[in-house]
Every structure is written in structure tokens, then in C-alpha cells.
Amino acid sequence: MLHSQITYVVTTYLFLCFFSLTLCDQSRDSYNTRLQNTLILGCSTPSKNASTSFRNNLNLLYSDFVLQSSQAGFYNTSVGAGSPDTVYGYFMCRGDINHHLCQGCVLNATDFARKTPCESVAGSFLSEYCSFGYSNRSLSGSYDPRSSLFATDHIETSVSNYNQFNKTLASTLASVINLAAFNSSQVSGFATAEGSVTRDETIYTMAQCTPDIAGVKCQECLESGYSTLRKGADGAPGAVVLMDKCMLRYDNVSFYDFGESKSNEGEGLRVSFIVLLFLGYCYLV
Ligand SMILES: *[C@@H]1O[C@H](CO)[C@@H](O)[C@H](O)[C@H]1NC(C)=O
Ligand SMILES: *[C@@H]1O[C@H](CO)[C@@H](O)[C@H](O)[C@H]1NC(C)=O
Ligand SMILES: *[C@@H]1O[C@H](CO)[C@@H](O)[C@H](O)[C@H]1NC(C)=O
Ligand SMILES: *[C@@H]1O[C@H](CO)[C@@H](O)[C@H](O)[C@H]1NC(C)=O
């Protein structure tokens, strides 16, 4: 078994803002918008290039994803069963969005992937509303803690009530992780939880794992996301970490989207946006 490095191909939205803050609308709405417009595609450095037959199977997998996403928020399958060119893959949509939005996200994601050259037999896609992965071996039941996209909604100085905020954040994230891993209700592997910082300030949190890693592995995946947030988002009022099989997000304004249109909560806050891509993602190829 070889560990091969993955290189990420990223759309320009975030990097425009990253390098030139003046080009960006410094508001919370813009944080949400940029998050929704960020598509991250990872392609493992090929130890062996995909065959034509593998690519054909991959295209069939993408079409199947689009079809299935009109009715399911998670799907895992394989195309070309038994042959050396079998493609294994899954997609997941965020647990609070409706099927229409899920399908739109999967459609955009697979379009983006089809247009982006990847010679390899493994790849993964991350975005705010949906993610997917594929490989020449089954990905079911495992996750890779080294893949992540991290973004924070970040005020120049940290939250004013730092100690109280952090205390509430820690306990709320701990409970949302526990709920997603062991006790999610409607959508398997998905949970939200809120905690009060003060009478006027609430922290909204969301956690999700793909159902194939439910339980302890989900907890581990989310804990590693949590430690990324603790290191990178210390004092930020909102942040998100997206990983191949799990996601964790919090904010002091609600960002849930249970099938309804989003309310406009922009307050013209001064925010900047930071993205760290952790490279060195390894797939077992
Ligand atoms: C895979 O394909 C690329 C582009 O066609 C080529 O540059 C590369 O050498 C190939 N790699 C292997 C391992 O065959
Ligand atoms: C899909 O996931 C289930 C359980 O998580 C597993 O038993 C099944 O083999 C998977 N199917 C494929 C085609 O990978
Ligand atoms: C898909 O892409 C279109 C065109 O860029 C965009 O308007 C739409 O919001 C995207 N849909 C989702 C769900 O991301
Ligand atoms: C969110 O946190 C920021 C920074 O502390 C603060 O200015 C803002 O008022 C908070 N929003 C709410 C709704 O409490």
C-alpha cells in the first residue's frame, strides 16, 4: 500500500479575499456567500494513472450521484463491481438542507470535478453544502483526519467576552459532537446544538458525519475538527472545518437552513476570512 499525497485545486473566490482584503466586502453576509461559493477538489498524486475504463466508471458515478441526490442526503455505491477499474464513492449533503439544494450542490460539484483534470484513481471534494469522495478501493467505514478546509469569520480583535464565550463554546461543541456521533435524531450523523453566552448572545453549532463512520469514528473525526478550530479560530465568533467524512461549524448568529430561505442577518460586521488548506492528505491508493 502506498500513501500518496493529494494536491488541491481551488476556485479563486477565497484567495482573492485572502491576498487582497480590500477586494472583499467585509461583512458577515459575505462570509456566508464566500463559504457557499468555495469548492475544493482534491486529487491524489497518481502512483498510477486512472485507466479509460476507470474514468468511464467515474463519469457514471457522477451521474448516479446527481440522480440520487434528489432523494438522499448520503449515498455510497460502486460502479463496475468486481473489475480492477471499479470506482467506489459516496456523497453527503449537509443535514439541514432540502433535496433541491442538495442536488444543486452535487450537480455543481460533479460539474466542477468533470472539468478539472485529475489523472489519479482517488479524489475528494469539499464544500459548505456537500462533499464527495471516490477511490479505486472502498472508502466505507474510514475517514482521513488530515484532509480539511478551515475557515473563520474573524473580527480583528477576538470576541469581547472571551472567557465566557469560550466556556460556552467548549460545552456546546462537546454536546453537538456527542449528539452527531451517538444520538442524532432525524438525519443520521447530523446534529445541531445551542448554548447561551449571555442573555443576548447564543452560540449555534452544527456537526455531521457520514453514516458509515457513525459512533466512535465519527466522534474522533469531529474531535480532530474541534482541535483544528481551537488552534485556528481562537476568539473568532464563527468558524467552520470541513473534512472528508465530517464537518463542524459554529457561529454566534444562526446559519441553519432547514429547507427555508436564509434570513438576512448581516450587520456589517468587520470580518476577514482565513483559509488554511492542510495539504499532505493521504489516501490509501
Ligand atoms: C499520468 O498522466 C500524466 C498526464 O498525462 C503524466 O504526465 C504522468 O507521467 C502519468 N503518470 C503515471 C504514473 O503514469
Ligand atoms: C455502503 O455502506 C454500507 C454501510 O455503511 C456498507 O455496508 C456497504 O457495503 C456500502 N456499499 C458500498 C457499495 O460501498
Ligand atoms: C450552482 O451553481 C450556480 C451557478 O454558479 C449557482 O448559481 C448556484 O447557487 C449553485 N448551487 C448551489 C447549490 O451551490
Ligand atoms: C458576535 O460576536 C461579535 C464579536 O464579539 C459581536 O460583536 C457580535 O455582537 C456578536 N453577535 C451577536 C448576535 O451576539
Features:
alpha+beta, binds 2-acetamido-2-deoxy-beta-D-glucopyranose, 6-stranded antiparallel sheet, disordered N terminus, 7-stranded antiparallel sheet, 285 residues
Task: Report on this structure.
The chain has helices at 13-19, 28-36, 52-68, 99-115, 162-182, 216-232, and strands spanning 3-10, 40-44, 74-79, 87-93, 122-126, 130-135, 148-154, 190-196, 202-209, 238-243, 246-251, 272-278, 282-284. Helix content is 31%, strand content 28%. It is α+β, with helices and mostly antiparallel strands and 285 residues long. The model is unreliable at 1-5, 11-25 and 261-285 (pLDDT under 50). It has six helices and 13 strands. Helix 3 packs antiparallel against helix 4 and helix 5 runs antiparallel to helix 6 (216-232). The strands form two sheets. It has a seven-stranded antiparallel β-sheet. A six-stranded antiparallel β-sheet has the order 8-9-11-10-7-12, sandwiched between helices. It binds 2-acetamido-2-deoxy-beta-D-glucopyranose (4 copies). One 2-acetamido-2-deoxy-beta-D-glucopyranose (NAG) is lined by residues 155, 159-160, 201, 237, 252-253.
Low-confidence segments, given as residue ranges, are: 1-5, 11-25, 261-285
Number of strands: 13
- Structure classification: alpha+beta
Query: How would you sum up the global shape?
Result: elongated
